[in-house]
Design goal:
The protein is α/β, with parallel strands linked by helices and about 375 residues long. It folds into two domains: about 180 residues, Glycogen Phosphorylase B (Rossmann fold), CATH 3.40.50; about 190 residues, Rossmann fold. Helix content is about 40%, strand content about 15%. The chain has a seven-stranded parallel sheet with strand order 3-2-1-4-5-6-7, sandwiched between helices. It has a six-stranded parallel sheet with strand order 10-9-8-11-12-13, with helices on both faces. Helix 11 packs across helix 13. The longest helix is centred in the last third of the chain and has 19 residues.
């Protein structure tokens, strides 16, 4: 890059909760080559800021206001952009890298004011009836210097031909296939040998925990002794009653005694180790970071063949994919893997190998670093 000093990358994320986008950003910042790049994070006060500081990262708290329906939307946007531009100039940022929709509009303005290129990192499926509707991806396609999508499925919803698809990565070594299931199962009051089917995801309706319970009801008919586990907590205030609705549904389905809710867990590895089969019931999942984690833990995956999931799970090799919304076939696939332990282990091993090859943090970070180098080379000294 023609300089002995590391280049500053200013990351922006409104950080309302710790979802897949935020966890991927933390991995990126933590694993950047510090001899070449210096990460600086601008986010709102909250769990992202707290976690980043605990990791020793440089964090500045700023405001990314909600704009929809607010009478002062434009002045608030201008103020957000001006504050970010001031931060970028103060730290001599070479690139602005925006990680969420709410942060991206102010970041776009800041990139103009500060005179440095902006990357928009898309983590959602966009379009009619979805986040941002049609207007947001069209706007960002015009304004962003460079666009990254975390899956080909996301890239297809962005009306621009030069989107860079970079799959998220995880710290594979954290998910040991030989990790004992004993601790988590003991905490649940379950024997080590019983069948445990589980899912992981924050408490939001689109994550499909209610569908998981419907699948569980059908699996119980096939495997009366099976137990079920839901790992995940509330992130957004709008979803405050979802967990209670799920508990009520479990009672209605007659499986309440078989389902365990353990809320948010900072470390999901022990819980994945306790599962025999991992199930993902998200509706139109953009990527599916927790699926990668389950595969790294050598757990066979059953999921809907929708969104970015088929880019991760190889049907019949690392798990089983079923048509979106097909609860009956999903239950049959889960039961098959729960009973056929040899098949489950083969798929688990294949999943682990696939993650090591395609979804490691090292691969993910190096691809983004190479993109930074390309942008800086085009920009010149």
């Amino acid at each position: 890059m023609g300089t002995s000093q590391p280049v500053t990358i200013l990351y922006t994320d409104h950080g309302e909760g710790l979802g897949g986008a935020e966890n991927s950003l933390l991995i990126l910042m933590r694993h950047l080559d510090r001899s070449r790049f210096r990460p600086v994070l601008a986010c709102e006060r909250g769990p992202l800021a707290q976690t980043a500081r605990a990791l020793g990262l440089e964090v500045y708290e700023t405001n990314f206001p909600r704009l929809r329906g607010h009478p002062l939307a434009l002045p608030r946007l201008w103020w957000s952009g001006w504050a970010l531009a001031s931060l970028a100039r103060r730290h001599h940022a070479a690139i602005l890298h925006s990680n969420t929709m709410r942060a991206s509009l102010g970041t776009t303005l800041a990139s103009r004011l500060a005179g440095c290129p902006m990357i928009w990192h898309g983590h959602d499926l966009y379009g009619p009836g979805r986040i941002g509707g049609r207007w947001y991806p069209r706007l960002m396609s015009r304004l962003a210097h460079t666009i990254i999508a975390n899956s080909h499925a996301v890239a297809r919803t962005i009306p621009r031909p030069d989107v860079h698809v970079i799959h998220n990565g995880i710290e594979v070594e954290h998910f040991h296939p030989q990790l004992s299931p004993s601790a988590a199962r003991a905490q649940l009051g379950l024997p080590e040998t019983g069948v445990l089917i589980g899912t992981v995801g924050r408490m939001q309706p689109w994550k499909g925990h209610h569908i998981f319970l419907q699948v569980a009801r059908r699996v119980r008919d096939l495997l009366p002794d099976a137990h079920f586990l839901i790992v995940g907590g509330q992130v957004f205030a709008a979803d405050a009653d979802y967990a209670e609705r799920l508990r009520h549904l479990a009672h209605e389905l007659g499986i309440a005694q078989r389902v365990r809710f353990v809320g948010h867990q900072a470390d999901v590895a022990p819980w994945l180790a306790a599962m025999d089969v991992f199930v993902q019931c998200s509706e139109a999942e953009p990527f599916g970071l927790v699926i990668v984690e389950a595969m790294a833990a050598a757990r066979p995956v059953v999921a809907f063949a929708d969104g970015g999931v088929p880019e991760i799970v190889l049907d019949g090799e690392t798990g089983m994919l079923v048509a979106p919304g097909d609860v009956s076939h999903m239950a049959e696939a889960v039961a098959k893997l729960a009973v056929d332990r040899d098949l489950a282990q083969r798929m688990g091993r294949a999943g682990r190998e696939r993650v090591e090859t395609n979804f490691s943090a090292t691969r993910y970070v190096r691809q983004i670093e190479e993109l930074y180098e390309e942008i800086l080379a085009r920009r010149g000294p």
